Amino acid sequence: EQEISPIHPQTNSTEPDNPRTWSAASVVQIPANKERHGTVLKCLALHESYSARSVAVEARLDVKYAPTVRMLGAPQIDLEEGKDSLILRCVADANPPASIVWRRAGRSEIASLQESLQLRPVGRRDAGLYTCQAQNSVGTSDTMSVQLDVKYAPKILSAGPDRLTTAPLFSPAAFECVAEGNPTPTYKWVQRISTQGKPFLDRGRESRLVIDNVTYDYQGEYECRATNFINGQERTATSDPIALQVVGAPQVLRTTSGGVAGHSVSVKKGDSATLSLIVCADPRPRHVAWEWGSLRLEAGSGIGRYRVDDVTQDSREDCYLATLHIDDADLQDQRPYYLVVENERGTDRHAISLRVEGMFSVVEPLELSYLLGIAGGCLAAFLILICLCIYAVRARKCCFRNRNNYKTSEKDR
To answer: Which residues contact 32 (CB under 8 A, 6 or more apart)?
Structure first.
């Protein structure tokens, strides 16, 4: 309904064969752009002889133009393999209608000839750069592209080198874990332990776990865990357990099961004391004994107030519990007690100290050797003092004797 001005005034002329009939002509010029495609152009002729004093004729503009494309459906969050679906639309604006072509970078075949590209569900093989383009008889559109990155949870490809690894005591050992995932997974090595409240012990944060100095603490089963995050949610894969077997001489563990030094026991005078140490060995120990002073008690024997249990199996493989019982503990019992263990590959010896608190004791008891040293020092000082006193008395008598001799000689003169 918007009036358009002609490029010049209308022309009026008579027809050659009928001078009384007039012919009127008007020319309008309109740019042929795609915004005008489909619009209606109306020419209105006005004359008093028309029944409605006007007659109109209409024409719909059909503007041909090359396609332009826009892409709809590009993912706004991570796509996870096997869970998410994707529908990409390549919408073309063209006259005449355009043909759509979907292609994938690095591949010669056409991905799709439809307006929509559907991936139901997406997989890791669908990841890549996708392009769409439209073409008609007028021309070809620019290319639109989208990069698809398909995330997937970790998967352990290998963990080893073997399901069972045997390592000599104090030698190095290494494990390797290989996993795939997108994003790239992080690694964690854990050791299964029997400690209550903490069934696993962290051993490493790299794909390769290296143990420079193998001890019996490292014996047991290990797991490799590969972890990544997809849309803020953790995804973890765990390997089958890998066993590390340690062989060698006995080793008395220098730490308690909680991982801290604890080789000291305190009891009150008159109470029973129990001294326990854990020893690991493969082969099994053939000799286990407790030693203190001049005494030695083999496992399963006893003397007086002292009794040694037979070694019992600990919760850890190839580890054993050795225990010494002391009844009616006295101050003279406070000392180090040594556990001596032997097998075919060697021996180990380690001490646990006993402290006995007396009835009136307010400070920690002193070692017997320290008390003997103090007593010896006091005795030596006392003897030196006596010698000095004897020397002083004898020196005084000598002085008086010389003085009396001097006075007698003076009288004689």
So the answer is: 61, 63
**CA–CA separation, 286 vs 18, rounded Å?**
140
b/e sequence 355-385, b meaning 16+ C-beta within 10 Å: bbbeeeeeeebeeeeeeeeeeeeeeeeeeee
- Mean of all residue pLDDT scores within the chain: 89
- Verify cis geometry, omega within 30 degrees of 0, for the bond prior to 283: yes
Question: β-strand 302-303 against 273-282: which pairing, if any?
Answer: unpaired
DSSP E strand boundaries for 231-345 = 233-238, 242-252, 264-268, 273-282, 287-292, 295-298, 302-303, 306-308, 312-313, 319-326, 336-343
d(CA 187, CA 189): 7
Q: CA gyration radius for the chain?
A: 52
With contact defined as beta carbons under 8 Å apart, do 247 and 168 qualify?
yes
Q: Which residue in this structure is represented by tokens 């730490």?
A: 255
Measure the CA–CA gap between 209 and 211, rounded to whole angstroms: 7
Compute CA distances 211 → 2, 189, 214, 257, 405, whole Å: 87, 12, 6, 20, 92
Grouping H, G, I as helix, E, B as strand and the rest as coil, residue 376 is helix
- CA of 265: how far to CAs of 268, 335, 368, in Å? 10, 10, 17
- Rounded percentage of the chain residues whose pLDDT exceeds 70: 89
Domains identified in the chain and CATH numbers: 11-63 (no CATH), 66-148 (2.60.40.10), 154-247 (2.60.40.10), 254-357 (2.60.40.10)
Query: Residue 397: what pLDDT?
Result: 59
- pLDDT at residue 85 is higher than 60: yes
Stretch (H or E) spanning 72? strand 65-72
Find how far residue 316's CA is from the centre of its chain: 26
> Quick one: average pLDDT of 28-47?
91
